[in-house]
Amino acid sequence: MAEQITLLEAKLQDTEKDVLELRSLIGGTPRVAFSAALRDSGSGDIGPFSTNTPLKYKKVFSNTGNSYNPSTGIFTAMVKGMYFFRFSMFVSTVPNSVVSLMRNGERLSSVWDTSGSDNHDLGSNAMVIPLEVGDNVYIELYAHTKVYDDGMNYNTFSGFLLFTM
Question: What distance in Å separates the CA atoms of residue 57 and residue 136, rounded to the nearest whole number?
Fold first, then answer.
């Protein structure tokens, strides 16, 4: 059943991509914007994992255009254009973490915090990048590191289409 759901999600994304492409061809202005936080409930650390791992931002505040998938943590461009992305990272105890903005497996930008005498560190980063239809953008937690989140929603991932190209 999980395989069927995955296949249906992929088909739905393909259909949505086709609809947005058609709208752009006939003069419709695609609307793409999302914002999400790591936890939809509870509190605690996420990680560490033995390998670099995409983070799944499960508390979705907005997802216009349905380009962000909270099950995978991946944003998929449904229209070619210039996009803005922002992400934040919060570490509660024994800071030592790295999260990175990734495009199709390529590291674009990171936020890094190392161990020190302080706790409760927060950092953020943002980028404007061009995307082709089907490009994937996500936030990756570096291996053997962790982040902390709770109902305050410290760790967020947001993005939106600036203009089509």
Answer: 15
d(CA 141, CA 49): 8
Considering only CA atoms, which of 99, 10, 9 is closest in space to residue 54? 99
* Strands, E assignment, 38-105: 44-46, 53-54, 59-64, 68-69, 74-76, 81-91, 97-103
- For residue 107, give every residue at least 6 positions away whose Cβ sits within 8 Å of its Cβ, in sequence order, or none: 100, 101, 140
Global pTM reads 0.80
Hey, what are 150's tokens? 């709770």
CA-derived radius of gyration, the chain: 16
What tens digit of pLDDT does each residue of 68-86 get? 999 999 999 999 999 999 9
